[in-house]
Amino acid sequence: MGRSPCCEKAHTNKGAWTKEEDDRLIAYIRAHGEGCWRSLPKAAGLLRCGKSCRLRWINYLRPDLKRGNFTEEEDELIIKLHSLLGNKWSLIAGRLPGRTDNEIKNYWNTHIRRKLMNRGIDPATHRPINEPAAADVTTISFATAATKEEEEKVISGFSIKEEKSPVRECCPDLNLELRISPPYQNQSDQPLKTTSSILCFSCSLGIQNSEECSCGDGTSSSNTGYDFLGLKSGVLDYRSLEMK
DNA sequence: AATCTTTACAACCGCAACTAA
DNA sequence: TTTAGTTGCGGTTGTAAAGAT
Asked: How far apart are CA A34 and CA A12, in angstroms?
């Protein structure tokens, strides 16, 4: 058995959207707003499934989309967010106004992955290629979050555990944990800040001039208490990681 | 000019999460 | 508490365009 399909596939168009379909969708959403995607196609006179309409609107037709090439700053922000959040494209997109999760995912797969490889960095782990697994890893664990809401709370409350050796839970082959670790850099010429400075989330992501900078002095390294991304001090505020 | 290969990205699919009855 | 319907997310695919041969 299984669940019924999300739409009547026999009577829906697939593939590229036509200008006329786009116009219909835009007109309908302008008039009625984003609402029930399930019923939207029929109401808008579109032979599309609701999911397809939603995707087309969110990824292509929404008026607030930025479009155009990614800037170098966006590149670096994506890399840093990915090192922190993994493939949580929607969360990453939430930090890049005008960009969609799909766009960022595509951009990651076509540009950034290669860019990191060229730098000798494994895009999956953000560690140097061929480097053995790290002995001490800081883990942000979502494993205890039963629901998405709880996961948000875990992010907000920053539930972190330090592992000297990874703990395998009941499903050893199913690793749902996000791991973060200090970004790769030449340790000899730029040692990590240890306990000598506090950085806000914006600064730790390298966007010191951001309005969200809350550490007072975006470029400061003179404050006290900090390490990568403000983990120890708790200065890093995941609550600013809004969902779309 | 023709063909093949690579790149970029829009769109689809399956599933998990959420919600309301 | 359960269940069915809906939404959102992430992985993957299809294909047009660009570049190489």
From this structure: 20
Nucleic strand B contacts from chain A, 78-137, CB < 7 Å: 102-103, 105-107, 109-111
At A55-66, the pLDDT tens digits run 999 988 988 888
Name the CATH code of domain A9-61 (choices 1.10.150.120, 1.10.10.60, 3.30.470.20, 2.170.190.11).
1.10.10.60
Here the tokens at position A6 are 């999300």
Separation of CA A66 and C1' B7 in angstroms? Answer: 22
Q: What is the rounded distance in angstroms from the CA atom of residue A147 to the CA atom of residue A241?
A: 17
Tell me the CA–C1' distance in angstroms for A17 and C11. Answer: 22
Is the pLDDT at A131 greater than 60, yes or no?
yes
- Residue written as tokens 């019924």? A4
Instruction: Report CA(A164)–C1'(B6) in Å, whole number.
Output: 43
- Report the topology of domain A72-127: Arc Repressor Mutant, subunit A (1.10.10)
Domains A9-61 and A72-127 share a fold: yes
> In which element (H, E) is residue A53 found?
helix A50-56
Q: What is the pTM of this model?
A: 0.67
Band (pLDDT 50/70/90 cuts) for residue A155 is very low
